[in-house]
Write a structure and sequence with these properties.
Largest sheet: 2 strands, antiparallel
Helix content: under 10%
Number of helices: 0
Radius of gyration: 14 Å
Order of helices and strands: EE
Protein name: DegV family protein
InterPro entries: DegV_C (IPR043168)
Strand content: 15-25%
Distance between the termini: 41 Å
Strand order of the largest sheet: 1-2
Structural class: mainly beta
């Protein structure tokens, strides 16, 4: 984390994660979706 207060966002194809953060102390929103496996 730099002095800006922003965190790096990692995006993986199998586990899509969307992270929104407008700054230090702000309200954040995170969405996680897990792929359903058949069988």
């Amino acid at each position: 984390m730099e002095a800006t207060g922003y965190h790096p966002i990692d995006i993986v194809a199998t586990t899509p994660v969307i992270s929104i953060h407008t700054g230090p102390g702000a309200v954040g929103l995170m969405y996680y979706a897990e792929e359903k496996k058949n069988g």
